[in-house]
Write a structure and sequence with these properties.
- The chain is mostly helical and 354 residues long.
- The chain contains 16 helices and no strands.
- The chain has one domain.
- Helix 3 packs antiparallel against helix 15, helix 4 runs antiparallel to helix 5 and helix 5 runs antiparallel to helix 6.
Length: 354
């Protein structure tokens, strides 16, 4: 049908793209509003929004021009950066600030996801196998760096990507990822609110460290006292008792939802949730194959899980990587246009949202 041509597909995507632009604009404007009201430094949030937007734009362009090579290059760049930059690796030193282990886990997750997306985009069996071996190499590298969490997260992405090839309806799977992304924030809030049973709370505090739990409880206290506008972007460190007492603290609560809620109020926390919901909708409408879409969705959900209990999003490379993977998974390769003429059939490889 002529209505299934590239022009009709472009018209259907104008709405989601426009909504994304508006959401990013609001995410950039709100910290400026809270900073003007409460004081603070909104530059960090503005840099994060800019990094995500730049990564997403690069991913859309790269995915359209080089649907296989672009995610492969992204995977290599991500794991290469993790190895080359010492401050991203967990390391044995006890003086390293909190958050580096989370950044390593996030980069491994995104790199494995990009390699798996490239594998599904490849049409030659030999290339597909080689790219999956690249994903395995990413996981092995994480193990060599001593990042147990990165190794586990990368393995989970690889296994879920292999299973995604058997999924025919992406809608329910993406809805499940959305529920999972929201659900991973519950433990942090439960620990911060001290509402868990004593045995479970002690076990979690032992894994998370008492320092991090103290930061979370300070953040929750700020949310209760300044629910609407927060205390101001970038001001958590100077108002947190736990942070002030620790010489190793970087002034952040090491939980993205708690930090946003404490510094920018409930609205500041809800905006990224809406942005993630928009991303899932964009993935649902994506012309890429269901396997590519679900692989990227799994990796981005893993990133959300890491960010809910760590400081990964404070690293610009992680924000750029997340935006890049999202852009790659929502792009429409130009090769699809040549595979269907005016009124020609839609490529079977891209699949239809369902």
């Amino acid at each position: 049908m002529a209505s299934d041509g590239p022009e009709a597909d472009g018209e259907r995507r104008i709405g989601p793209d426009a909504a994304g632009v508006v959401l990013l604009g609001v995410c950039a404007a709100w910290p400026l509003i809270t900073a003007a009201t409460r004081g603070g430094r909104p530059e960090g949030m503005l840099l994060a929004v800019l990094a995500v937007a730049a990564g997403y734009a690069a991913g859309r362009i790269g995915g359209a021009l080089l649907p296989v090579a672009a995610p492969c290059a992204g995977a290599l760049a991500g794991i290469g950066l993790t190895v080359a930059v010492p401050h991203l690796t967990p390391g044995p030193q006890i003086t390293a600030p909190l958050g580096h282990a989370g950044a390593t886990t996030a980069m491994v997750t995104l790199s494995a996801g990009a390699a798996c997306c490239a594998a599904w985009a490849a049409t030659t069996p030999a290339v597909r196998i080689a790219l999956r071996l690249l994903a395995v190499g990413v996981v092995v590298t994480a193990a060599a760096l001593g990042s147990a969490a990165g190794c586990a997260a990368g393995s989970a992405v690889l296994l879920c990507s292999l299973a995604a090839g058997r999924v025919r309806r992406r809608g329910p799977a993406l809805a499940g990822l959305g529920v999972a992304a929201v659900g991973v924030t519950v433990p942090a809030w439960a620990v911060a609110g001290d509402v868990l049973p004593e045995g479970l709370a002690s076990a979690l505090e032992g894994r998370l460290t008492a320092h991090r739990v103290g930061l979370w409880r300070d953040a929750l206290g700020m949310v209760r006292d300044h629910m609407v506008l927060g205390v101001g972007p970038g001001r958590f460190g100077e108002l947190s008792t736990t942070s002030v007492r620790s010489p190793l603290s970087d002034g952040k609560p090491h939980s993205a939802p708690l930090q946003l809620a404490a510094e920018q109020g409930v609205v500041g926390m809800v905006l990224p949730v809406l942005a993630f919901g928009w991303l899932l909708y964009a993935l649902w409408r994506s012309p890429r194959s269901t396997a590519v879409v679900l692989t990227a969705g799994t990796a981005l959900t893993g990133l959300a899980a890491v960010a809910s209990v760590g400081n990964a999003l404070s690293f610009t490379a992680v924000s750029v990587g997340g935006g890049l993977l999202a852009g790659l998974a929502t792009s429409r390769p130009f090769t699809d246009d040549t595979a269907r003429g005016p009124g020609g059939p839609h490529r079977a490889e891209t699949g239809r949202p369902g």
